[in-house]
Structure formats: structure tokens, C-alpha cells
Amino acid sequence: MPTPESTTDASEASGSVRLRIAFATGTSPEKWFRRFMQRIPARLTTESLDNPMGALEEGAADMAILRLESATGTSTVLPESFHRIRLYDEAWGVAFEKEHVFSLSESIAVGLLADETVLLTSTDPGQLRQMLPVAATGAGVVVGPRTILKALSKKAILSANLVDVDSQEHAEGAQPMSKTSVWLVWPKEADDELRQEFVGIVQGRREGSTRTQMGKAAEDSKPKKLSAREKTLAKQARRAGAVGKRNGGQGGARKPGKAGRPSRAGRKSGRRK
Fold first, then answer.
1. Tell me: the pLDDT tens digits for 16-32?
2. pTM of the model
3. Torsion sign, CA atoms 232, 233, 234, 239
4. Stretch (H or E) spanning 85
5. Does domain 92-170 have CATH number 3.90.1150.10?
6. Angle between the N-to-C axes of helices 30-39 and 193-202, in degrees from 0 to 180, rounded to the nearest 10
7. How do beta strands 63-69 and 18-24 pair?
């Protein structure tokens, strides 16, 4: 199996069920992982890999987040035995040594690459990992998905978005070019409620709108949220209880005086004239 780019991250949930997700180097699915752990009583194990599809095919992962070239299409890459959901398109970029003139701009026109030594154009993290140190020496530039370039770059390397225009004057503010997309993939034969809960999260399903029995059970176990009126009534009840405690539970009545001690009026009437 490929060497992981990051360590395994497991949730603190005590559930006995577990979901294992392998995700491509440079992708950023952390927000979906956090929401899953907040909503579902199950363990989540995630791992960043150069080849997450390999982990899925070998049974080492239950789902995979892949990077695929947009022009290729999933039908020619993924077998029909896999479900697939397109998550987003990736911005492409160019990496260069930090003193390069490209460091003055956030977006670079693709037309400027004609005057540069392009050492590598690739989506393969392994190839990019080997070539980026060469770019750091000033020998040339490297082109690929910007998320990978940023994830693998060291301090001596910077990157910028690559824009599909010829001149730099039209580059600023333009949308970055994209040649790859990120997909969520899992086997059809292994589809279950746990996987469907994660699918709902990546598709933007809100908390409380779950469609599975597992998700409904998790929602039912959470403390009920009070309405504005219920909060007001509860606050009033707490205040009433506090007043009762201060008054000794006597409804505001005066505490009786000490036994055998005459009142002030009685003491006055008993004085000699």
C-alpha cells in the first residue's frame, strides 16, 4: 500500500461501528470528517494516500476520495461496481522558487509558461514530490493541482493559481484553470447506512435531516433543544425558586421572634412613670 502522507485520525466516539476513508494527497475533506464525528456515533478512521483507490480495492478502506482528470471521465477509470459522487473541481497552479518573478502575483497567465522551463506537469503526488525540490533551486517551474503543490511544498517553494489566458494583464481576478475533479467513491455491494450518512454530509444535508435509522437514532439520543418560549418559562421558574430560597420557603412571611422576649411596644408599656 502507498506510504501515507499523514497519520491516521480516529474519533473519540465510543460506537462499535467504524468507517474507514482514504483520501487523495492534497485534498481537504476535514470539514466533512468533523461533521460526521459530531453527528454519528461511530468511529471514523481517515488516511491521506497517494493512491486511495488502491486502498479501496484492497479492502483497506470503506470509501475513497479520489482525484481524477476532468477530460478522462469516471466511466473510463472507475468500474461500474462503484458508486461515485463528484465533489468539486480543483484549481491548478504553478510552483516556483520564492525569489521568482511569479511571486509578485497570486494568479499567473498560462501564456507566461512559454518563457519558462516547465520541469513537470502532473497530478501524481509521487512525481511532484520528487520534482519540487528541483524547482526550489531555480531550475524551472512545476505545474499541477495547486492543493498538491501547497501540501508538498517546503519553505523554498511558492505557488500561484494558473489562469487560462495569454497575457498577465488579464490574469488578475480571473478564475483558475482546472483539469482535475475530486470524487467520493465506494463499492455498490458494500453500501450501507454508515456510508449513506457520510454521503449526506458531503452533499450538504443539514443536521437533523438524516434519512437512515442510524442517523435518526443519533438525533433522538441528543438533548431536545428548547424553543424561545420554553427557555423563557424555564428562566422564570429558576428565578421563582431562587426567591423562595431567600425567604426561607415561607412565601415572604416575617420570621418569628425569639421565644419569651417581649415586643418593643410591650417594653415601653412596662416602664415606670
1. 789 999 999 999 999 99
2. 0.72
3. positive
4. strand 82-90
5. no
6. 130
7. parallel
